[in-house]
Amino acid sequence: MKVLVINAGSSSLKYQVYDMTDESVLAKGLVERIGMDSSILTHKPTGKEEVTEVSEILEHTTAIRKVLDKLVHAEHGVLSSIEEIQAVGHRVVHGGEFFNGSALVTDEVKAKIRQLIDLAPLHNPAAIMGINAAEANMPGVPQVVVFDTAFHQTMPESAYLYAIPRVLYNKYKVRRYGAHGTSHYYVSQIAAEFLERPIEDLKIITCHVGNGGSLTAIQNGVSVDTSMGMTPLEGLMMGTRSGDLDPAIVPYVMNKEDLTLNEVNSMLNKHSGLLAISGISSDMREITEGMENGDPNSTLAFNMYEYRLRKYIGSYAAAMNGVDVIVFTAGVGENSVVLRQRVLEQLTYLGVELDEELNKIRSGEPRRISTANSKVEVLIIPTNEELVIARDTNRIVEESK
């Protein structure tokens, strides 16, 4: 089966095409600036040269049509016809309490995704546009939705409820949902395979650390707690997000600065985190460079970031009464040698021993960076959320036949 994986944003659309006979990627690409007359389509067919096209793409239906045209193009294509695509998988950020796993798209499923727009106002409408656009271009082709929140639906009430009036949960479903669930699920599974141990026997802390970041405590193969909350704002300090803060700060600052709700929301999501503290960048690479050059604000930003990450690891070790495996993944987690070293050298109380030479090796493969004597296995595992979407899509479509 060949599967088209789509990750639709409000003005962008990422895609990959998988041949599920060997899980190989046939092509991938990105459509940017949807809604403008200078939209950009970047198409990367495997084994062929990358191509870029600038044209008017006013909505997602046109974007997908142009993607399909590229996939069957005589020179740049990887398919003989669109009929080769037997299923489409979509990333959807929020599944609420409706979905604890991936689902075949039906009218009922789409209606539930729409009901959750209040919980993901930027993301779920884009996902719906992607689903509708795929249906318009490939009528009759089965589609599957894979939710970022689904993996975390195993959390107990004691972890997902907030200590606020219960009526707010009963009426509006105010609770912790988490995010990055597809990534946390994937790297925890790979960790167990790498160590050749049953995942049901492991206590794993997965650190998905990129421009956005979250940690998850995984016990016996299921999520028991995660750092992002009702929205992706809670938890770690991130590239532009504040992470945890005293909620009383919000009305205080709004009053002092005469800010609207939209303005304070923008401040906390887009103008905080590493960017706010460093005054330089939200990119950990630039923060690290600034720190190495002696910039005090970059140093402070790095130290705050590392401290909060380390605190969460400690709290999740406490939540599970121990930890067997710590996994680093995503852009920062996979690539920042210095961040991993700073975090791990302060976790010796857990029995962590870092192999500094292994930590310096750069590789696109799962690898161990702890010593043979370390009581906790520390791994770097590149995440692959698109592959999880393709696998779930393939499985659910085959089961539905």
TrEMBL record:
Cross-referenced Pfam families: Acetate_kinase
Subcellular location: Cytoplasm
EC numbers on record: 2.7.2.1
Catalytic site: D148
Family matches, as SUPFAM superfamilies: Actin-like ATPase domain (SSF53067)
Domain of life, source organism: Bacteria
Binding site for substrate: R91
Cofactor: Mg(2+); Mn(2+)
Binding-site residues, Mg(2+): N7, E385
GO CC annotation: cytoplasm
Coiled-coil parts of chain: none
GO biological process, one term: acetyl-CoA biosynthetic process
Gene Ontology MF, one: magnesium ion binding
Pathway the protein acts in: Metabolic intermediate biosynthesis; acetyl-CoA biosynthesis; acetyl-CoA from acetate: step 1/2
Keywords: ATP-binding, Cytoplasm, Kinase, Magnesium, Metal-binding, Nucleotide-binding, Transferase
Subunit composition and interactions: Homodimer.
Family: Belongs to the acetokinase family.
PANTHER family recorded: ACETATE KINASE, ACETATE KINASE-RELATED
UniProt protein name: Acetate kinase
Organism listed in the record: Paenibacillus urinalis
